[in-house]
Task: structure prediction
Amino acid sequence: MPGLRSLAPAKVTWYARRLRSMGPREVADRALTVGATAARRVTGDHEPDDATLLGRADPDWAALLGDFRAGTARPVLLDRASAAAVAEAHPEAVKALLAAADRVLEHRFTFFAHPEAHYPGAIDWSYDPLADVRWPALPSHAINHRAGHGEPKWIWELNRLQHLPWLAQAWLITGDERYGTEALDQLEAWIAANPPGRGIAWRGAFEVGVRAISVLVALQGLADHPALTPERYRRAVRMLAAGARRCWRDRSKHSSANNHLVGELAGLAAVGILLPELASSARWERDAVDALAAEARRQILPDGVGAEQAVGYQVFTAELLAVVALLRRLDPGHAPTPADGTLLAAIGRSAGHLADLVGTGDPTPRTGDDDEGFALRLDPAPVREVRPHLALAAVLTGLPAARRAGTPDLTSAWVAARLGSTDARTDWEPGDAYAPDGGLAILRSGRRRVLVDVGPLGYLSIAAHGHADALAVGIAVDGHDLVGDPGTGSYFVHPDWRTAHRSTRAHATVAVDDADQSVMGGPFLWSEHAQVRVRDVDLAAGRVDAEHDGYRRLEAPVVHRRVVDAPPGDDVVLVVDVLTPTGEAPLPPIRTTWPLHPDLTVDGSADGTVVARRDGEPVLRVVTSASAPASGWRLRGGDPGAGELGWWSDRLEQRRPCWFVGAVVEDGGGARRPEPVIVATLLVTGDAAARPAPSPIVDPGRDGAVRVHWTGSSGPRATVVGAG
Result:
């Protein structure tokens, strides 16, 4: 099989880079697991007998199923009474749910931006019909999911079984036995086809943890279905218990302990909470929740930013915490602990930051990676957006900002029905904000939102889901992106897309010598990280001043400093880039990039500026001056010479062409000792975008300070970038 190929030179290089990202403790810990992993490659996972599993001989599975149906000593999320309330309050959402459940009845599945896949007969859980690839029936540790012979994320998405809760809800709402029968038949077939530890579905404890949540919640919704027999319940419980052991034993550690660890712990906690009859349940719940509390403090920073520097993963991580917090809160025998408070606090501070970010009408920034993951998929929406997440966070925390910015969906509706939430406070309005730990400044003025990224590359030494976007700027007006982040592109299907969408040239910042600020070591690995230093953030003035050292590694080392001046009440934003050489070598080419939303067209004007239009109306004018000769450039995806740049990705595995515009300084000093190069860009929005704008005047100054004279919509202005 392709997954068992010998290591290619590129793979050896990747392993060497990955090893360098580990500390001594991680290297030693991973070495200790090699023997156990090698044994499981041959034998798969061992399943204990029922007596060991339950701590008693000859268990009565009919009685155990009776306790499960009655909700004895455990929390219940999906029940018939709540189903009636949800259906009455959200008829349109329920209509969409039933349509999704009907597609599942026909074995039709759609993941990411891929076309629909159809299994005309029984579902083959190892077969990807889109790629026409069947993953091998080997011990999971022996499968190389990076071998390039299939799309692992597609097959993992199918095997997360997140469609089963749709069928369970459809059964509860309609009483149509077909939904419940199909769900239980699929689960039975899945268990038979995927013994613990074998096959692609068990490749990684993270997949096991996310799947456990789906199966447990679906089983609760199907508890009173006649097709749920004691023997079927036994098989499901045994599978879930095997998964719980896998989640703890193979949990992500050290430099890999990002959202994957949260998913593994959340799955373990869910099994412990919802199956209290298991002998290990109390320990699993305790260990998982204690570890989750620690991760909540690490992965949701004190200012509410996700440590991975990826908005999509922040939502995913917060929702995994929310699943556990919710189950503990619904558990009739549970007394709140400090760990519960820690989980809720993390959900709340994350929601506070996300509400600051999207306000009451702004688009969601697509910073960093996003693989469209769901912690619990009750609503059939194809993507878990920020606003429905905020509605869930509002129900759990009562945060007015989350309630004001959130949009209720089926997930928040079920949770509200079970918790009896009545808090309707919405006394919050978005404003300026600065998150110093995560490194994001939000500058608002009327209908305009400006974002300035002054944060780190990503989380831990590999920064797996970060992009090389230090000092990037985003601009949205009237709820529409003008300048933004082009998104993720692809993970495995199109490696060239992945490289391009992570690169500096794909972001609204500056590339020196067309290089990346940080160094890619692999598709989910950065081997060198640019470090950002924030000099000043003045929200009242709408000013951000920061620099990064990512280009010090170049043969001609450079420090990039950026000042963003977005005065309140002014339609014009000034961005001043100062590129300072730190050696004697001539400066290489310096390029500014402004990725424009795909809905925008561009044209040039007589004064050399770029005008971007939506539906024919000017919405953005880009005017550039520099301290050295500069020329404008533009490209669009698919144009000759554009390569993989000039594309915008709204969904994973999908992209559409957009305009990248900017300026390039080819010669910043020639043979003489190079001086700093200053590039000043006016980004004119609102009504002012329709009128010609005077070019900014750059004055490097003999005292080392840079002065830029420019004209805003309210008159002449001057911006000073101090020396040092």
The chain has a mean pLDDT of 93. The two ends are 59 Å apart (CA to CA). The longest strand covers residues 572-581. The longest helix spans residues 338-358.
